[in-house]
Design brief:
The chain is α/β, with parallel strands linked by helices. Helix content is 44%, strand content 16%. It has helices spanning 6-12, 40-46, 84-98, 111-115, 124-130, 149-161, 173-188, 217-238, 254-263, 271-276, 281-297, 311-314, 316-331, 333-338, 344-351, 354-362, 365-373, 388-405, 422-425, 431-449, 503-517, 533-536, 541-547, and strands spanning 26-33, 54-60, 71-76, 104-107, 119-121, 164-171, 194-199, 242-247, 267-268, 303-308, 415-420, 455-460, 470-475, 480-485, 488-493. Strand 3, helix 3 and strand 4 (104-107) form a beta-alpha-beta unit. The termini are far apart.
C-alpha cells in the first residue's frame, strides 16, 4: 500500500459540489435541432444516424428519481488532465444512484483496452482511493485511434460479454471525434450500445457555446502560473536574466494567454495573433529584441517571455511548409521509409516546392529535422519537441549582438529556458476542476439514463456557484468540420482558437505595453484547496472575462 501525503488524506474527504439540476429526479428537455459548425452536407452524409440531434438540458422533476439497470464502460483517452478521476467518480456515483447493482468497467490504457479486451471492474473501494486526485492512473490512458470497423467490432465483443450498454470516452477533440464515429457505427448496426463523450484537455481548445471549458485547463494554468510567478520573483531578485518560458498548447494559445493574465510577464507571444498579422520568425525576434533593448536602456537587463508550444505552426510561412511536408510524407511514406537516415532530409527537400524548400533550408538543422521526421500518431508535427524557447532566445541574442555593433543596444543579455508541460497535467485538481469534473461524470450517467448516444456531457454557467450550474448534453456532430489529416479529408471536432476580438485577448492587449515597459509581475502562489471561496473556488480569468456581459 502506497504512503499518502497529508494533502491526499485531507482531499479524500472533499465532497465535490453538484448542480441543483442533477440532484433528485430530473427530466431531459430537448432544444432545437443542431447542425455541424461547417461542412454540413459532408458531415451529415458521414453521420446519418447521429446528425442533427437537439440540444439537451436537465431540469428538476417531481417524484422520485428513476431507477435503471445499466452497466457502463469508461475510457481515458489521450494526454492526462487534472480531474479525470473525478469524472469517473461522478459517473460511478450516478450509475449507482440509478441502481446499486449497476457496474462500471474501466478499459486499461485507453481505447486500446477496449479493442484488446483489457479491463477491470471499478468498485467502490477502488473509486474511493482516487477521488479528488490528479492523474489518470486509476486505469491509465492511451492514444489508440478508434476509426476502423474491425476495432469497433472487436470492442463490441467485450461490451456484449460484460453486458455493457453504454461507453463513456473521456478525451480531447480527437478522442471525442472517435467517440462520435463509434456512436454512429453502433447506432447504425443496432448494437444497443450508447457512447457519451466528456471534454478533456489542458490546452483549452475544446470549447464552444455549450462547452464553456475543457476540464484540466483551470488546474494546469494555475500550476503553470505558480511556476511562472516563482520564476518572475527570482528574475526580479537576481535582475540579470531573461527567462524564456514555453507553455503547453500545440494548436491554440489559451494556456499562454491565461497564464499571462495571471502573472503579467514582460512579453507574451500569442500564436493566433502571429498568424493574423502574417508575421515572420524575424518579426517575432525583432519584437522581443526591441523590448529587451528598451528595458536595458532603463537599466533593467531582465524579464520574462511566455511562448506557446505551437508558436512555430502559427508562423504563416512555416505553416505552409508544414502543410506541404504533411502531404509529401503522406504520399511518399513507403518510399521515404526505405531511404537511409542521413539521406531523408535531402529527399524531403527534393519533393518540396521551391518556396518551401528555401524556407526549410533556412531553419536551424535541429528544427528542420524535427519538422520533417518527428510525428505523433495522428501525423502531426511534435512541436513540443522543438525547443522554440531556446531558438527564440538564441536568435534574439544574435540580433542584439548586431545592434550592439551598431550602437543600438548597450545592455547585457543572458538567458534561462524553461518548459512548463508535464508538471501541470496530473496535478491535484483545483476545487473548480474537482467540482466540474464530478458534475461532468455524474451528468454523463444521466445522459445514459436518458437513452442518448453521440452526445458530449455539458455543464454550463460555470462562473456561478456550482449549485447554479446548468447540466445537459450537446451532439458531438455539432462540433464537427472537415479537415485534412494524413493527406485525406476527415471529420474532426474543430479546435477553438484564441479569439482576437474576444474579451480575454482584449484585456491582455490593454496592458501589454505597460507590462513590457514596467516590472508588473504577479505571484499567484500555489493552488489553495481550503479557505475563503475567493481564494479557493475562483475559475480562470479567461472564463470570467468570456462571461462578462452575458
Amino acid at each position: 500500500m502506497s504512503t499518502k501525503s497529508a494533502l491526499q488524506i485531507a482531499r479524500a474527504a472533499y465532497q465535490p459540489k453538484l448542480p441543483q439540476a442533477l440532484r433528485g429526479a430530473l427530466k431531459a428537455v430537448e432544444g432545437a435541432p443542431t447542425q455541424s459548425v461547417a461542412d454540413q452536407e459532408e458531415v451529415k452524409k458521414l453521420f446519418p444516424n447521429t446528425y442533427g440531434m437537439p440540444y439537451l438540458k436537465f431540469e428538476p422533476a417531481e417524484g422520485a428519481p428513476a431507477k435503471k439497470s445499466i452497466n457502463a464502460g469508461v475510457i481515458l483517452s489521450g494526454g492526462q488532465a487534472p480531474g479525470g478521476h473525478n469524472v469517473i467518480a461522478g459517473l460511478f456515483d450516478g450509475l449507482k444512484k440509478l441502481n446499486p447493482a449497476n457496474k462500471l468497467y474501466g478499459f486499461i490504457l485507453g481505447p486500446g483496452g477496449l479493442v484488446d479486451h483489457n479491463y477491470m471492474e471499478l468498485t467502490a473501494d477502488i473509486i474511493d482511493e482516487y477521488r479528488n486526485t490528479g492523474g489518470f492512473d486509476i486505469i491509465g490512458s492511451g492514444r489508440t485511434k478508434l476509426e476502423k470497423k474491425d476495432q469497433f467490432d472487436k470492442g463490441l465483443e467485450i461490451l456484449k460479454a460484460l453486458d455493457i450498454k453504454a461507453l463513456v470516452i473521456i478525451g480531447g477533440d480527437d478522442s471525442n471525434t472517435n467517440a462520435c464515429v463509434l456512436a454512429e457505427y453502433y447506432k447504425a448496426i443496432g448494437a444497443g450500445v450508447q457512447v457519451i463523450g466528456c471534454p478533456k484537455t489542458i490546452d483549452g481548445d475544446l470549447k464552444n457555446s455549450e462547452i464553456e471549458t475543457s476540464f484540466g485547463f483551470d488546474t494546469a494554468t494555475k500550476v503553470y502560473s505558480e511556476i511562472i510567478g516563482n520564476i518572475e520573483r527570482d528574475c526580479n531578485s537576481a535582475r540579470k536574466y531573461w527567462h524564456f518560458i514555453k507553455l503547453m498548447g500545440r494548436s491554440a494559445s489559451h494556456v499562454t494567454l491565461e497564464c499571462a493574465l495571471q502573472t503579467q510577464p514582460n512579453i507574451t507571444l500569442i500564436g493566433e495573433e502571429v498568424e493574423a498579422k502574417n508575421q515572420t520568425l524575424d518579426d517575432i525576434v525583432t519584437y522581443i529584441a526591441q523590448v529587451v533593448a528598451d528595458r536595458a536602456a532603463r537599466g533593467m537587463n531582465f524579464g520574462t517571455v511566455l511562448v506557446p508550444e505551437g508558436l512555430i505552426e502559427f508562423i504563416p510561412a512555416i505553416k505552409k511548409l508544414i502543410a506541404e511536408l504533411n502531404d509529401v510524407l503522406a504520399a511518399n511514406q513507403a518510399e521515404f521509409d526505405m531511404i537511409q537516415a542521413d539521406k531523408k532530409i535531402q529527399y524531403i527537400v527534393s519533393k518540396l516546392s521551391k518556396e518551401n524548400a528555401t524556407i526549410f533550408k533556412s531553419l536551424p538543422e535541429s528544427v528542420s529535422r524535427q519538422l520533417a521526421l518527428e510525428r505523433d500518431p495522428h501525423g502531426n508535427v511534435q512541436v513540443s519537441l522543438i525547443e522554440t524557447e531556446q531558438l527564440l532566445a538564441d536568435m534574439v541574442g544574435v540580433k542584439l549582438d548586431e545592434w550592439k555593433k551598431e550602437g543600438k543596444f548597450l545592455g547585457k543579455y543572458a538567458t534561462q529556458h524553461h518548459f512548463c508541460g508535464y508538471e501541470g497535467r496530473c496535478a491535484a485538481p483545483s476545487n473548480f476542476d474537482a467540482d466540474y469534473c464530478y458534475s461532468l461524470g455524474y451528468n454523463a450517467s444521466m445522459l445514459i439514463a436518458a437513452g442518448k448516444t453521440g452526445y458530449m456531457s455539458s455543464i454550463k454557467n460555470t462562473v456561478a456557484p456550482a449549485d447554479q450550474w446548468i447540466a445537459g448534453g450537446i451532439p458531438i456532430t455539432m462540433m464537427m468540420n472537415m479537415e485534412k489529416r494524413n493527406g485525406e479529408m476527415k471529420p474532426v471536432i474543430r479546435k477553438a482558437l484564441v479569439e482576437l476580438d474576444g474579451a480575454p485577448f482584449k484585456e491582455f492587449i490593454k496592458h501589454r505595453a505597460e507590462w513590457a515597459r514596467e516590472t508588473s509581475f504577479v505571484y499567484p502562489g500555489p493552488i489553495q484547496y481550503f479557505g475563503p471561496t475567493e481564494v479557493c473556488d475562483q475559475p480562470t480569468k479567461t472564463l470570467k472575462l468570456e462571461h462578462q456581459g452575458k
